[in-house]
Amino acid sequence: MTSFQGRFRLDCPRSSAPSPSDSSIVPSTAPNSPAFAYIEFRAHPDPTPPKPTRGCFEHDSASSKFGLRWERWTDFQAWLITEQETHCIELRLVNTYPSTPAFQRACRYVCSRKGTGGIKPYTKLHPEWNRKRGTKRTGCKCTLLVKEYPGVDTILGSYADQHNHPLGNANLPFTRIPKRSREYIAGENDTVLPSSQHIMPNAEESRCHETIPRVKTRTRGAGDPSYGGNANSGSEAKQPKLLFFFVCFRSLINLISGRQSQILVRRLRHHHQQTSFLSPLSYPHNCSLSLSLTQHPSHILFPHIIFRPLWYR
User: Which runs of consecutive H residues, i.e. helices, occur in the chain?
Assistant: First the structure.
């Protein structure tokens, strides 16, 4: 860097300067005269440029902390999906920093094994019991910081991929199924999932590009023969059971409230029409009440009441 040194003279003010008509006063040219003063200065033709603002694109590009670079934000999202699929991990967004003159957007992701929420105020009743699956929170130090800058399309990222837990299939029980995969399973999304959006993140390449056949499922109940029920009783299994309990409760209330005679005669006649092993004259006055269900289609609306004499107990 070249430099030069110079000197210039400061003369006295004009008010005190001698007039040219006065020839008797001659200014002194001595260096030590108080009428003159010399100032020494040094100038540089290319001064040192100022340092960039901390946190801006130039500062982060020169720093060794931000080692990842993407051309667009969509490229970063594709890289994030691939990174989670390759190592069977889950990176969750925990903080979004507000924009400043240095950067436009900054997002911080952490590993799900670290935990993104607070500690719940729950005390285990039996902490000495051994669980089949260990705790999810291991305090993992893996973190990802991504920054977007104004006027620049390039995205910079700082990634610390040190995990304190096993990766791969051993970490799958502690991760969630992606939202797009859940929608595909539920039938809300009929599009074919790409390899990075499949249900099993570490599946084979051949299975990733295959279309999963959709099978219509139905609720297995009492009418399903494979479930151990009768195929003809499917409609009966769908009948609401709440109505049956309501009718039974109403029948008991009517018996207690003084309408025993009318209810008994009505139910006895109805039951005699449905069964043939009892006669209308074989019911004594001192009998006990018990409710039972039959396979009759109207058992929901008309619960059958069977009376047995007390001496049969």
Answer: 57-62, 73-87, 179-186, 205-208, 234-237, 241-256, 260-274
Q: For residue range 38-55, what is the model confidence (pLDDT) as tens digits? A: 566 565 565 666 777 777
Q: Residue 144: which pLDDT band, with cuts at 50, 70 and 90?
A: very high
Out of 67-76, 175-184, 207-216, the most confident range is 67-76
Alpha carbon distance 206, 81 (integer Å): 19
Q: Is 37 within the bounds of a domain? A: yes
Domain boundary among 159, 187, 208: 208
In a domain, 294, yes or no: yes
Q: Name the residue among 167, 216, 211 with its Cα closest to residue 192.
A: 211
Ramachandran angles phi, psi of 155, nearest 5°: -110, 130
Amino acid at 64: S
| pLDDT given for residue 308 in this prediction | 43
Our count of domains for the chain comes to: 3
> Does 88 map to a domain?
yes
Same domain, 98 and 139: yes
Q: Which domain holds residue 23?
A: 4-43
Answer for the pair 181, 191: CB distance below 8 angstroms, yes or no.
Answer: no
